[in-house]
């Protein structure tokens, strides 16, 4: 009996330590009073210049933001999470403030849960940092996704401007991927296919960790940033645009 108790104590301690270690290497955006989620109504006007404008606007204040390409079936939309002045910085995008599409994994409230992405139907993972300084090349695999009608694939890039060493604007970046599928077996299969597709298209690898799915989902929802001191991952405006285009 005592061995069973000790086993569960070890499991509990391990989970707590894993949770604390993950929090130690994440930075979180400011409160909801200064950040919002925006739908990009004029996504055709989103260009590399949009990213250059965000770099200039947030370089001194060290604020970060998240760009998210959402795919459901054959539908694709772009959303931006960040400071509420973003619509003033990018008026050409006609940003519309919206409610988060991700459900609170800790909430017991079930109203409208069917309209949001639930942690119970999602798999989320972090992308390994880019090790070389060669420009990123994006293959067609990422642009020709074959998703079922209700299947979803989302790519999130959390970015903070880096001080310019050259005339090329760059961002310390954190990339996350999420797949959504109601059936658990199909969900795992879809995640495997998209992991391989993303690797073939970009050379990026899936980060291997033991963090619980709920914590990874929360990091996606909170739009947290892995700082440069933990994992350097520098992307140019051109590279970020290519990933989201």
Q: What is the succession of H and E elements?
A: HEHEEHEEEEHHEH
Instruction: Write down how many β-strands occur, each being a DSSP E stretch of 2 or more residues.
Output: 8
End-to-end separation in angstroms reads: 57 Å
- What structural category characterises the helix and strand content? alpha+beta
Task: Indicate the mean pLDDT.
Answer: 83
Q: Helix share of residues?
A: 25-40%
In one word, what is the shape? globular
Strand content: 15-25%
Number of helices: 6
The whole-angstrom Rg is: 19 Å
Number of domains: 1
Main sheet: strands, sense, barrel: 8 strands, antiparallel
Low-confidence stretches: 5-23
Structural notes for this entry:
This protein has one domain (2-99, 118-244). It is built from 6 helices and 8 strands. It has helices at residues 2-24, 48-58, 86-89, 184-202, 213-222, 237-244, and strands at residues 35-40, 65-72, 75-83, 95-98, 122-126, 152-161, 170-180, 234-236. Strands 1, 2, 3, 4, 5, 6, 7 and 8 form an 8-stranded antiparallel beta sheet that branches. Helix 2 (48-58) packs across helix 6 (237-244). It is globular.
Structure summarized in a few sentences:
32% of the residues are buried. This protein is an alpha+beta fold and 245 residues long.
């Amino acid at each position: 009996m005592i061995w069973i108790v000790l086993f569960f104590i070890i499991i509990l301690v391990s989970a707590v330590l894993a949770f604390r270690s993950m929090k130690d290497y994440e930075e979180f955006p400011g409160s909801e009073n200064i950040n919002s989620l925006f739908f990009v109504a004029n996504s055709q006007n989103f260009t590399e210049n949009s990213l250059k404008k965000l770099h200039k606007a947030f370089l001194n204040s060290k604020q970060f933001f998240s760009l998210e390409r959402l795919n459901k079936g054959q539908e694709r939309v772009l959303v931006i999470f960040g400071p509420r002045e973003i619509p003033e910085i990018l008026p050409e995008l006609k940003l519309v403030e919206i409610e988060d599409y991700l459900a609170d994994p800790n909430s017991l409230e079930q109203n409208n849960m069917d309209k949001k992405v639930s942690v119970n139907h999602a798999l989320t993972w972090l992308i390994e940092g880019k090790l070389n300084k060669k420009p990123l090349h994006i293959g067609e695999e990422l642009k020709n996704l074959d998703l079922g009608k209700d299947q979803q694939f989302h790519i999130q890039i959390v970015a903070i401007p880096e001080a310019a060493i050259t005339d090329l604007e760059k961002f310390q970046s954190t990339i996350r991927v999420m797949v959504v599928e109601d059936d658990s077996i199909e969900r795992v299969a879809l995640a495997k296919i998209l992991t391989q597709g993303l690797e073939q298209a970009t050379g990026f690898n899936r980060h291997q960790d033991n963090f619980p799915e709920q914590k990874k989902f929360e990091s996606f929802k909170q739009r947290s940033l892995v700082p440069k001191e933990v994992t350097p991952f520098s992307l140019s405006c051109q590279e970020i645009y290519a990933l989201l285009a």
